[in-house]
């Protein structure tokens, strides 16, 4: 800090800026206060934020299923990892999951749809490449864990096919 009139007033000013930051849900605030020709106070107040969009953890198993077939989901404990459930289809790569071939098109699968082994169930975009993800087995789609356009991690559960 500079040789401002009072360090106590500088501290009060910074506290007021921090409160303003919190009250208005801001991440950073920069202010320059001029006291005279060669006397000023430059203050930057910031706080760390967590980018939720960057996290790609699947919804917790206790979250309601996006479709009414939740009752048809495999009987497992509420704290079971969806990736370990019988019939789980896990992501083979990191990328962005798309449930349809192009915007506005019908989704590849939906809860209750019967799929054949090798049939495309979704696409994962990785490094500008669209990778078709085939059904590893024939069966009925019981649950879909991802939403269209969401990021996925390697091994993350995508859906249940039984």
UniProtKB/TrEMBL annotation:
SUPFAM superfamilies: Single hybrid motif. Keywords: Biotin, Fatty acid biosynthesis, Fatty acid metabolism, Lipid biosynthesis, Lipid metabolism. GO terms for cellular component: acetyl-CoA carboxylase complex. Pathway: Lipid metabolism; fatty acid biosynthesis. Pfam families: Biotin_lipoyl. One of its GO terms (molecular function) is acetyl-CoA carboxylase activity. PROSITE patterns: BIOTIN (PS00188), BIOTINYL_LIPOYL (PS50968). It comes from the Bacteria. GO terms for biological process: fatty acid biosynthetic process. InterPro entries: AcCoA_biotinCC, Biotin_BS, Biotin_Carboxyl_Carrier/Decarb, Biotin_lipoyl, Single_hybrid_motif. CDD domains: biotinyl_domain (cd06850). This is Biotin carboxyl carrier protein of acetyl-CoA carboxylase. It comes from Roseisalinus antarcticus. The gene is accB.
């Amino acid at each position: 800090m500079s040789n401002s009139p009072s360090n106590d007033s500088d501290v009060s000013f910074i506290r007021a800026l921090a409160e303003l930051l919190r009250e208005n849900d801001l991440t950073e605030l920069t202010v320059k206060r001029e006291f005279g020709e060669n006397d000023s106070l430059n203050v930057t107040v910031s706080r760390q934020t967590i980018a939720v969009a960057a996290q790609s953890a699947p919804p917790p198993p206790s979250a309601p299923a996006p479709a009414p077939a939740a009752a048809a989901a495999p009987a497992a404990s509420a704290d079971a990892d969806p990736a370990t459930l019988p019939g789980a289809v896990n992501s083979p790569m990191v990328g962005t999951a798309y449930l349809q071939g192009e915007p506005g098109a019908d989704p590849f699968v939906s809860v209750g749809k019967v799929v054949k082994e090798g049939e495309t169930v979704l696409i994962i975009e990785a490094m500008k490449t669209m990778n078709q993800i085939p059904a590893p087995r024939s069966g009925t789609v019981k649950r879909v864990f991802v939403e269209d356009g969401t990021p996925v991690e390697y091994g993350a559960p995508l859906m249940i096919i039984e």
